[in-house]
Automatic annotation (TrEMBL):
Composition-biased stretches (Low complexity): 345-373
Source species: Sphingobium scionense
Protein name, per record: Ubiquinol oxidase subunit 2
This protein's record includes keyword Ribosomal protein: no
Membrane-topology annotation of the record: Multi-pass membrane protein
UniProt cross-references to CDD domains, sorted A to Z: CuRO_UO_II
Length: 373
């Protein structure tokens, strides 16, 4: 016996489902499938919050459809239930107001607990849901500098540095010290943890841990000028043996990162290649945070100390040498480079070749920053 034809709405849903799902085919669900414990906890927070809100949204949407169908004009049965004198129901009022109130209380408690537990400045107390961190274990420190438009990673404990490549050992707590060279940026590795702002003259922090070997992408989550689109870096989480091999490869590069190299590296460039530095100047990150990587510049920490001690007196009013931190004589971009945008890093292949005669003013770091501000 043949089956009766399906209702029209069922057939429409069956035909349209693949079309509606097609835009999701290219989605990368890394936020919902992370490899770091902090990102896992943040994912769970999203799912729990959405589930709590759906407890109200779904019944309300279902009741909208039910009431529209139940009390349609052609339903004669509903006419018999019509009560023109009805105006109040205590039970209905309690139900309508208590359910949202309880959900708001749950969301508020969840937000309060998670805000403190997932504070990026708070040192980690666990590797994952089942493994606590040994208090004697010292976290690996990675100093992050957001440049125009690339990322510099300094490993002070290992004495190495990289450009546009971040590598971490699995199941080892990591502390990121984050700053920027010129404008505000945002450091974000979806696999690892949430995004944290990087600001010039300031230092922010992020504590995280990678739980399994993985290869991913990190990027800037805050618009910062002409080269923002390509401000990405490779992220790798290795087991201890793999991380040791990666460190050995970096140390084998033979290059050294000092303040002179940093001045060149900090100039605006797009699509900068990965670069390794076998050694790194110990106090370079502190100089970047204090806006004094150039010789002769006075550090912010020094000036704050002078102010704390009561100031330097009237005679210092004209002592402006070393106090210019933006154009002209920026702390990262020389004045003559103001309108000379670069499309590749200084150490990229072919970077030293003569550039074609063209107007690159649209790539100017200064102009992009002025528009951003």
């Amino acid at each position: 016996m043949s089956q009766p034809p399906s209702p029209l709405w069922t057939r429409l849903l069956r035909w349209s489902a693949p079309i509606l799902a097609a835009p999701l085919a290219g989605c990368n669900w890394v936020v919902m499938n992370p490899s770091g414990d902090i990102a896992v906890q943040q994912r769970d927070l999203i799912l729990i919050s959405v589930a709590l809100m759906l407890l109200i949204v779904v019944p309300v949407m279902a009741l909208v459809v039910y009431f529209a169908w139940r009390y349609r004009a052609t339903n004669e049965a509903a006419e018999k239930e019509y009560d023109p004198d009805w105006d109040h129901s205590t039970k209905l009022e309690l139900l309508i107001w208590s359910a949202p109130l309880l959900i708001i209380i749950c969301l508020g408690a969840l937000t309060w607990v998670s805000t403190h537990k997932l504070d990026p400045y708070r040192p980690l107390d666990r590797i994952n849901a089942t493994t606590a961190i040994d208090p004697k274990v010292k976290p690996l420190t990675v100093q992050v500098v957001a440049l125009d438009w690339k990322w510099l990673f300094i490993y002070p404990d290992l004495g190495i540095a990289t450009v546009n490549e971040l590598a971490l050992p699995t199941n080892v707590p990591v502390r990121f010290d984050i700053t920027a060279s010129t404008v505000m940026n945002s450091f974000y590795v979806p696999e690892l943890a949430g995004q944290i702002y990087a600001m010039p003259g300031m230092q922010t922090q992020l504590h995280a841990v990678a739980n399994k070997p993985v290869t991913g992408i990190g990027f800037s989550a805050n618009y910062s000028g002409a080269g923002f689109t390509h401000m990405r870096f490779g992220y790798h989480a290795f087991d201890q043996a793999g991380f040791d091999a990666w460190v050995a490869k970096v140390k084998g590069s033979g290059a050294a990162l000092d303040r002179t190299v940093y001045q060149t590296l900090a100039k605006p460039s797009e699509k900068a290649p990965v670069a390794y530095f076998a050694t790194s100047e110990p106090k370079l990150f502190d100089a970047i945070v204090n806006l004094c990587p150039k010789p002769g510049q006075r550090c912010m920490s020094e000036l704050m100390h002078i102010n704390q001690m009561g100031g330097a007196g009237k005679e210092s009013a004209k002592e402006t040498e070393g106090l210019q931190y933006d154009f002209p004589n920026s702390h990262v971009i020389d004045q003559e480079d103001r309108n000379k945008g670069q499309e590749t890093a200084p150490d990229a292949p072919g970077a030293g070749a003569a550039a074609p005669a063209a107007d690159h003013s649209s790539h100017s770091g200064a102009d992009a920053h002025a528009q951003h501000r």
